[in-house]
Design brief:
GMC_OxRtase_C, single chain, about 70 residues, oxidoreductase activity, acting on CH-OH group of donors, mainly alpha, two-stranded antiparallel sheet, 1 helix, FAD
C-alpha cells in the first residue's frame, strides 16, 4: 500500500490483482487510484478522471468494432 498524507494507492496492483485492462474477478473493473504503482505526489483526481475516460472510450471502441 502506497499512501500520501491524504490519498491511498496501490491496493490492486496491475498484473497481480487486475489485468492490463483493469479486470478483476467476475468481470469487475477497478478504475481508481488503487491501481497506481506509486503516488503521483499530487492530488490524483485528474489522473483518476482521465483513467476513467480512457477506459470508457476504449470499451466503447471495442463494442463498436464488435469485439
Amino acid at each position: 500500500m502506497v499512501m500520501t498524507i491524504w490519498h491511498y494507492h496501490g491496493g490492486y496492483q496491475v498484473e497481480k490483482v487486475v489485468d492490463c485492462d483493469l479486470k478483476g474477478v467476475n468481470r469487475l473493473r477497478v478504475i481508481d487510484g488503487s491501481t497506481f504503482l506509486s503516488s503521483p505526489g499530487i492530488n490524483p483526481q485528474a489522473t483518476v478522471m482521465m483513467l476513467g475516460r480512457y477506459m470508457g472510450v476504449k470499451k466503447l471502441r471495442e463494442r463498436l468494432a464488435g469485439e
